[in-house]
Amino acid sequence: MTVDQVRVMVVDDHPMWREAVSRDLAEAGLDVVATAGDGEEAVRRARASSPQVVVLDLNLPSLPGVEVCRQVVAYDPSVRVLVLSASGEHADVLEAVKSGATGYLVKSAGREELLDAVRRTAVGDPVFTPGLAGLVLGEFRRLAAEPAPAASPAVPQLTARETEVLRLVAKGLSYRQIADRLVLSHRTVQNHVQNTLGKLQLHNRVELVRYAIEQGLDDE
């Protein structure tokens, strides 16, 4: 995937900030397909414009950002959401991830950090402001320790390579780091992850990490 193929939507209730972010993304060669200033408008435009990445503020009128995230991802699970928020509060981060966000940056991030985050989010890498990734993994481990609400179906058979990739995903490594560790191409790692998601009937990397931790793969 080349940079100019990445379709991005920017959602923020502050017009100047929304325009500045959109301009930075467009000048870097990304395709800004839509913008929105409130939650309900964001859901409508996301469905109409089919972005690959939604850069989303949490504090929105009419519909909270986490609910926008939940609805957008439920409508199209292939859409990735990168939260860009003024808040670095742990509760906000965890709520965003549980609603389906792939990553979370605070607004103090620099222009290049944002551009890199959008590009990485587009290929499925989880991107977090430094210090927040550990918090999210810790929450996954806590959730995995809770009793399952119902009996799980038989576990599909993964190949040795898929299991190896899944183990590294559970440890919090990005796709690029996994590719370097296993001497594979970035595309090959993506394919293994997509195949694993299909076999396990999961929808995104958030669910995949939780599954891997429930299986104890992060401790191996």
UniProtKB/TrEMBL annotation:
Single annotated GO MF: DNA binding
Pfam families: GerE, Response_reg
InterPro entries: CheY-like_superfamily (IPR011006), NreC/VraR/RcsB-like_REC (IPR058245), Sig_transdc_resp-reg_C-effctor (IPR016032), Sig_transdc_resp-reg_receiver (IPR001789), Tscrpt_reg_LuxR_C (IPR000792), WalR-like (IPR039420)
Keywords attached to this entry: DNA-binding, Phosphoprotein
Keyword Methyltransferase carried by entry: no
GO biological process: phosphorelay signal transduction system; regulation of DNA-templated transcription
Protein name: LuxR family two component transcriptional regulator
Lineage, uppermost ranks: Bacteria, Bacillati, Actinomycetota, Actinomycetes, Kitasatosporales
